[in-house]
Design goal:
Elements: E1 5-11, H1 17-28, E2 33-35, E3 44-51, H2 58-62, E4 66-74, E5 76-78, E6 87-90, H3 98-106, E7 110-114, E8 123-124, E9 127-128, H4 129-134, E10 144-156, E11 160-167, H5 173-183, E12 188-198, E13 201-202, H6 209-214, H7 217-220, H8 224-227, E14 232-234, H9 237-244, E15 249-250, E16 263-267, E17 273-280, E18 283-289
Parallel strand pairs: 3-12, 14-16
Antiparallel strand pairs: 1-3, 2-3, 4-11, 4-12, 5-6, 7-10, 8-9, 10-11, 12-13, 15-18, 16-17, 17-18
């Protein structure tokens, strides 16, 4: 059977994102499976999995903003920046009030620079950083621009803080926790992480691997068009044929107002995703055709 869609998976602890992909391949007996944003093995939560031709949408789903809940534990740093690593630094607990801590959190809102951790899959000269870290090496890493949309304090004492973070693609919550602790003149590491939202996918609607294996696929599959956060252009018989052939659409054939620097999902009247497209001069140009 040919599958094409997205499954909102609840990733359990102790599995890599690739482990989840391998498990889905076995359950569905299909090879064309991919995930949309790595979760560390100890982390849990939302991991959208693309199947069939929906794997071509992974780059768009990966770029969606994400929401996490994390526990920042004060007093020690680890080499991995989470509780799985070796303690490399210990300090006293922060001597601050909840009001002062809230002000520190506010300083991390918006566009900030973040240095990726050594224990990450980022490659330098073809080598993943985590492999170099396991060999005891540390190499210079360039800071990356990330965006923190929201940073809520849910609980706080001098030992721990429970945070809810909504952020851009590429944000390392482990590194954020360490940086926040340092801003408190202390040290800290991330001791728990759960991803509660990734784009249109929320934890309330996620399925465990056991549920995927025992539930009819039509009950858990999400159509490609429903997974994308882009405005939509609905085709008619004429424009549908043009898009299916990968050709550009003249704007006078489209009812939707097309804006620059915006991607659009082009769909049939029945909601089938035909393509992802964007404005090129006076045309809507498909950049990825699925139909």
């Amino acid at each position: 059977m040919t599958y094409a869609g997205i499954i909102n998976i609840f990733k359990p602890p102790g599995m890599t994102s690739h482990d989840v992909v391998s498990k889905i391949r076995k359950i569905l007996k299909t090879k064309k499976v991919g995930h949309t944003g790595t979760l560390d093995p100890d982390a849990v939560g939302v991991l959208p999995i693309c199947i069939g031709k929906a794997t071509r949408l992974a780059e768009y789903l990966t770029s969606d903003e994400k929401t996490y809940r994390a526990i920042l534990t004060f007093g020690s740093e680890t080499d991995t920046q989470d509780s799985s690593g070796k303690v490399v630094k210990e300090t006293s607990l922060p001597e601050i009030s909840i009001e002062q801590f809230s002000q520190i959190l506010n300083s991390f809102l918006g566009e900030i620079e973040q240095i990726p951790p050594m224990y990450s899959a980022i490659k330098i000269q073809g080598q993943p950083l985590y492999k170099l870290a396991r060999q005891g090496q540390e190499v210079p890493r360039k800071a990356r621009t990330i965006y923190i949309h929201d940073l809520k304090l849910l609980e706080f004492d001098r030992k721990k803080a429970l945070l809810e973070i909504t952020c851009s693609k590429g944000t390392y919550i482990r590194s954020l926790c360490e940086d926040i602790a340092r801003a408190c003149n202390s040290s800290g590491h991330m001791s728990f992480l759960i991803r509660t939202k990734s784009g249109n996918f929320s934890i309330d609607e996620a399925f465990t691997l056991e549920e995927v294996a025992s539930t009819p696929l039509e009950e858990i599959f999400i159509r490609p068009a429903d997974a994308l956060n882009f405005p939509q252009v609905i085709t008619n018989e004429v424009t549908e044929k043009i898009v299916r052939n990968g050709n550009k659409l003249s704007l006078n054939l489209i009812d939707t107002q097309i804006m620059e620097d915006q991607k659009y999902k082009v769909v049939t009247k029945e909601g089938e995703l035909l393509a992802v497209a964007s404005l090129k001069k006076d045309y809507l140009q498909p950049e990825k055709v699925l139909g």
